[in-house]
Design goal:
The structure holds 2 protein chains of 2 kinds.
Chain A (H helix, E strand, L loop, with lengths): L8 E6 L9 H5 L4 E3 L5 E3 L4 E2 L3 H13 L5 E6 L3
Antiparallel strand pairs in A: 1-4, 1-5, 2-3
Chain B lengths: L19 H7 L9 H8 L11 H9 L6 E7 L8 H6 L3 H15 L1 E8 L4 H17 L5 E5 L10 H10 L15 E2 L2 E7 H13 L1 H4 L10 E8 L5 E6 L4 H7 L8 E4 L5 E4 L9 H4 L10 E5 L5 H15 L5 H18 L5 H15 L7 H15 L1 H8 L5 H4 L20
Parallel strand pairs in B: 1-2, 1-5, 2-3, 6-10
Antiparallel strand pairs in B: 4-5, 6-7, 8-9, 8-10
Helix pairs in contact in B: 5-8, 12-13, 12-15, 13-14, 14-15
The chains are: A alpha+beta, B alpha/beta.
Chain lengths: 79, 424
């Protein structure tokens, strides 16, 4: 996967209604996602810069690897 | 209507709802001269359903949306078991609420008004039906009026769940990735407002913003309906000016003058210690204590009661009322209820139960699609602070007299399936 360099910040966002607690995101993006005791993700709420390529890449893996398609990478327009 | 006096919303309230003719006679004033949106903005009206969001900002957001088939939804679902204000309002002044809904419709440019009342209260459904009939018989112009009767659940009154019902016959909250988020029925933008907010809008449309600001404080103008229950002679709905000291409200409801604690806002609200009775009933005075007026609920807890047991009963019920869409809510709330049960009736190491409870509260807070779990977390956290002494007494095995007495002050509807709280 080619990594595009982009300015700005992103957060990984979960749709808790879709999420069924498969736990793939915790495996694929351990630096962004922790698991609660029932296996649902607790995602780091701090926006991460796109220049942090490691975090961005694992966020993209998590987004694609989610069996419920519950994750989205959302760009934060900083003011 | 005279200036600077109460009652306003409850003006000339009788045992029967006012008919349209009576209503026009009582509130005999044409629409005020200024534009409605400017009047609404100048009035500083905030939503009375719990979130206290400025109504003018919401109206402006929906007004700026494209679409010629917008909806105004009047939310009179009254999910809070301790609240009776919307139903009281609809069974005294249904036309005031409908007036406000029509004004809102003309502000945002809506073609439809949907009044939502829970079907479990047939009297109020009848009142609303009759009021709508009177209006459509008088004139067929103006937005289309409809009544909807979803089944009563706690989360069914949440705005996205209500819109989901109107859109798709499912009373389940929706996920909103960004805020502010415009809810839609089909493609049509929707503005959802509490019945009391609409009634206030009806008054603002007739008498204007300057009149509206005649009571209340500078930051929270106007009056609000308060349902007072618990240790009172009889449960009442009062209309108070915002900023009225809590002591005065309790006195006029003939409640216990020296309570142990007050529950403010509703079952997703917070406990307030009984020593803060001199605070004014408005958000800016209550905010330093971490409390808000919420949906206008005050439950008075006397000194003879056990706050922990009452909290536990409410949390159990709230766990059962979860829509069970999101894991942290479906699994977390029963777990919290279980922890509280261990704290109330200590059977194992209470310190570890306490620590586990704190940990779980942090894991649940903010991780649902709607605010239902957050409300429970706030409620439990405020209980941990307010009843800290009782918690330590319970932890030492000294259960208080109140926890053994079989008298309860918070009304909790019958649990459907008390034995199986965990969703399979």
């Amino acid at each position: 996967m080619g990594v595009r360099r982009r300015a700005g910040l992103f957060i990984l966002q979960v749709n808790p209604i879709l999420c069924d607690g498969f736990g793939h995101c915790g495996e694929l993006a351990p630096e962004l996602v922790k698991m609660d005791e029932w296996g649902y993700p607790i995602i780091n709420p701090e926006p991460v810069p796109f220049t942090n390529t490691g975090a961005h890449e694992s966020a993209r893996y998590a987004e694609r690897g989610c069996p419920r398609q519950a994750l989205r990478i959302r760009k934060i327009s900083d003011k | 209507m005279r200036e600077n006096t109460l009652p306003r919303l409850m003006y000339a309230a009788g045992p029967r709802p006012l008919s349209l003719a009576q209503h026009e006679e009582v509130f005999a004033s044409p629409r005020s001269a200024g534009s409605l949106l400017e009047e609404l903005e100048a009035s500083g009206l905030t939503g009375r359903g719990g979130a206290a969001f400025p109504t003018a900002r919401k109206a402006r957001l929906i007004r700026e949306q494209r679409g010629h088939n917008k909806f105004v939804v009047v939310n009179a679902m009254e999910g809070e078991p301790a609240s009776h204000k919307d139903l009281t309002l609809l069974s005294t002044h249904p036309h005031l609420v409908l007036d406000g809904a029509e004004y809102l419709a003309s502000i945002v440019g809506a073609q439809n008004i949907a009044v939502c009342v829970a079907r479990d209260n047939p009297t109020v459904v009848n009142h609303v039906e009759r009021a709508l009939h009177e209006r459509t018989r008088r004139s067929l112009r103006g937005p289309k009026l409809e009544m909807h009767t979803p089944p009563w659940r706690y989360v069914a009154g949440e705005e996205s769940a209500l819109v989901h019902w109107l859109d798709d016959n499912e009373s389940l909250p929706q996920f909103r990735p960004t805020r502010p988020h415009v809810l839609r029925i089909g493609h049509a933008p929707v503005i959802v407002d509490n019945a009391e907010t609409c009634a206030n809008m009806g008054l603002i449309g007739r008498y204007g913003a300057a009149w509206f600001r005649g009571v209340g404080t500078a930051n929270s103008p106007g009056s609000a309906l308060v349902s007072v229950t618990g240790a009172v002679e009889r449960p009442t709905v009062l209309e108070v000016a915002l900023g009225t000291p809590l002591r005065v409200i309790l006195k006029s409801a003939s409640a216990d003058p020296d309570p142990q604690a007050l529950l403010l806002g509703g079952y997703g609200g917070s406990w307030l210690e009984g020593s803060h009775l001199d605070l004014g009933y408005c958000n800016e005075a209550l905010a330093p204590q971490g409390v808000s007026t919420g949906a206008g609920v005050i439950v008075v807890l006397p000194r003879s009661a056990c706050g922990i047991v009452e909290t536990l009963r409410v949390v159990r019920w709230m766990a059962n009322e979860s829509a069970r869409q999101c894991g942290p809510c479906a699994f977390g709330l029963p777990a919290i209820a279980e922890d509280l049960n261990h704290l109330a009736h200590p059977s194992r190491d209470p310190l570890s139960a306490h620590k586990q409870l704190e940990e779980r509260l942090g894991q649940i807070d903010g991780h649902g699609a709607c605010r239902h779990p957050d409300g429970v977390v706030r409620f439990v956290r405020s209980a941990l602070v307010t009843f800290a002494e009782d918690f330590s007494r319970h932890a030492n095995g000294l259960a208080c007299a109140g926890s053994r007495a079989n008298v309860h002050y918070l009304s909790v509807p019958h649990l459907e399936r008390e034995e199986e709280l965990i969703w399979e």
